[in-house]
Write a structure and sequence with these properties.
- By secondary structure, this protein is an alpha+beta fold.
- It is about 25% helix and about 30% strand.
- A hairpin with a 5-residue loop joins strand 3 (about 55-60) and strand 4 (about 65-70).
- The longest helix is centred in the first third of the chain and has 14 residues, at about 10-25.
- It starts with 9 loop residues before the first helix and ends in a 9-residue tail after the last strand.
Length: about 110
């Protein structure tokens, strides 16, 4: 079994992600704050050319965590995605939700 990955405190990872996106000319913001040191992280990609998509690091069988697409917005139901984000944060107060508005935002998912 693989060794679990060492983790940066979440607030440091979030700050670095926001700065990287802004340095590349994009917009990044914190939608919801979670637990500063050990919170989980969700990244919402909001590229103008595609419906918003939410990615989360999910535990794997070998003990590692991999980024996984959790949900994509349905253009036919524009409010459903935002409502889902609100429910996710209400269910998990440790969850950080970060929105990135930049082309090819997947490249910024750590």
């Amino acid at each position: 079994m693989a060794e679990p990955e060492a983790r940066l405190p979440t607030h440091i990872e979030v700050g670095a992600l926001l700065r990287r996106v802004q340095q590349e000319g994009g917009f990044a913001t914190v939608i919801a704050r979670g637990e500063a040191d050990a919170g989980t992280l969700m990244v919402v990609l909001a590229d103008r050319n595609a419906p918003p998509r939410a990615f989360e690091r999910m535990p794997q069988m070998d003990g590692t965590r991999a980024w996984t697409l959790s949900r994509a917005a349905d253009p036919a139901e524009p409010h459903a995605f935002a409502e889902w984000l609100e429910r996710r944060h209400a269910q998990d107060k440790d969850l950080w939700i970060i929105e990135l508005d930049i082309p090819q935002g997947e490249r910024f998912i750590p």
